[in-house]
Amino acid sequence: MIDAQFMDNTKILSKQGIISFVGNIVEIILKYLYCFILAKSLGAKLVGVYFLGFTILSIVQLIGKLELQEGVLKFVSAFRSAKEELNSQKTMFLALKIVGICSILLCIILLFLAKPLAIGIFKEPLLKNVLIIFMFSVPFFNLTTIVLSYFQAHLRMKYVILIRAIFQPLINILIFFLFLALGDKLQGAAFSYLFSLVLALMLTAYILKNKFRLTRIEKNFSSHDYKFVWFCLPILFASILNFAMQWIDTLMLGYFRNASEVGVYGVALRIAALGPIFLAAFATVFAPMISGLHSDKRINELELLFKFITKWILTLSLPFLLLLLFFSHDLLTLFGNEFLLGKDALVILIIGQIINVITGPVYYMLIMSGRSRVALFNSLVFCFIGIILNLTLIPKYGILGAAIANAVSVALSNLIMLVQVYGFLKIHPYEWKFIKPISAALVSIYILFVINKISLKFSVSIPALFISILFIIFYASFLWKFGFDKNERRIFTLVKDKLLSLNLIG
To answer: Going along 54-157, which residue ranges are E strands?
Structure first.
């Protein structure tokens, strides 16, 4: 019975995972194209101001949405599993109402704080207008996020991908080109982000109205609503602390050093963030399934899926991360020679992301199994460690210190959550089969180093694209040689059929 249920869920994971992955690829191409355009158009100093403003904006967005999107994902997934669509929609509308009010209030308050933040703390006058423009985008971003979580909980990833991964970043780029033509660079970048979010919310509302059967909801407050709010509050504080842990390095660089170093580090950070693309793609689909399986007490099936998804996150991510390491110098050169200052930092950041993908979707395993208070405790500890590391390392080592603090924080937090998942659920994601992709990746990258060394000896330049294709061929060949199990072969057949039929969206 478990095998049949396992295959049903892996079919969902495979189909929706393909949609999510393809969307993430498009999103990454568009966002990194935009990052590249910004770096080339603005230079290290102005792009540093933009990244600093965007980091502050992200904090405000986080507080404004109160992390209710995580509650929507968990509760709507459970209601969907129990076929309680009325409660599902009621949860979404409650979240929209709370987030809308909170976001508007925050927007108003922080408009008055733009000047003190820009001049008083970061000593960067250009930051003031960027922050003022950014603040108007808070309600639009947060309301869109809530509705997209509702789509995700219903496993309608095509709508999530359409809006988040394609429409908004594409519109952002097109509007920025318009501002560039008008000669407005830094403020034009901020305005283009704002206008793209306004249009994204309009498209989201259109899909919600026309593609989902919405029911008139009574306004009375129920016990479900109290559970929903109390579940989300610890996650809010945990997420604020997680965000602080993730971005405190950027803020402290802006405080202790200068905008140019923030710009260089921001580019390195965004390149390293390419590494977990497969983790993000499959965790997005896996999260609502965790909630449903845990609610139904199907822990054995949850463990099988946890092992399956973690192995394939590692199998797909590890070669990609190793290629990022191999081409770290070339990637930074694309943005301009002034960004080469971040090469060592990029290497360290990628190592932290390798630990991230090895541990799999442990954060969602904790949150979607109802351990929001544990997540809050974790975040308190990890944030404290991150602050101490940044305060110690950034004044002395600058960009390199920020990268070390970031990588250590990411690695340590994921390893501790892995232990906690085992402690609470008595499951872990590892099997002996994990040795296969690790061995294949290490042998393949070693062959590349040998080839590169020989080419340098004879002064022969080998194109990066050719080396990448060669690495993928080696890696796939070694994986094939090591072999796949029965369930994996069945999934390959499913994926192949979906790709051949081009039926990725259904």
So the answer is: none
CA distance 293 to 300: 9
The burial of 500, by beta-carbon neighbours within 10 Å (0-12 exposed, 13-18 middle, 19 or more buried), is given as exposed
| H-only helix segments in 218-342 | 223-256, 259-272, 277-295, 299-326, 328-335
- Name the one residue in this structure whose structure tokens are 């294949």: 440
Mean pLDDT, residues 476-505 taken together = 57
Write down the pLDDT at residue 382: 80
Q: What is the pLDDT of residues 152-185, one digit of tens each?
A: 887 777 888 888 888 998 999 999 988 888 877 8
For 370, other C-beta atoms within 10 Å of its C-beta total: 14
* Token digits of residue 102: 């909170």
Residue-by-residue DSSP string for 363-409: HHHHHHTT-HHHHHHHHHHHHHHHHHHHHHHHHHHTHHHHHHHHHHH
- pLDDT of 140 above 90: yes
Query: pLDDT digit string (tens) for 373-393?
Result: 787 788 788 878 888 888 888
- CA 141, CA 325: separation in Å to the nearest integer? 33
Tokens of 224: 């479900």
To which residue do tokens 């952002």 refer? 172
- Give CA separation, 232 vs 122, 280, 295, in Å: 32, 21, 17
Cα 284 versus chain centre, distance: 9
| DSSP state, residue 184 | -
- Burial degree of 502 (CB within 10 A; 0-12, 13-18, 19+): exposed
Residue with token string 């580019």: 267
Residue 494 neighbours by CB distance under 10 Å:
16
pLDDT tens string 27-82 = 777 877 887 888 778 777 787 788 888 888 888 887 887 777 777 777 777 777 66
The pTM score is 0.64
Can you read off the two tokens belonging to residue 391? 């305060």
Q: Are 143 and 208 in contact (CB under 8 A)?
A: no
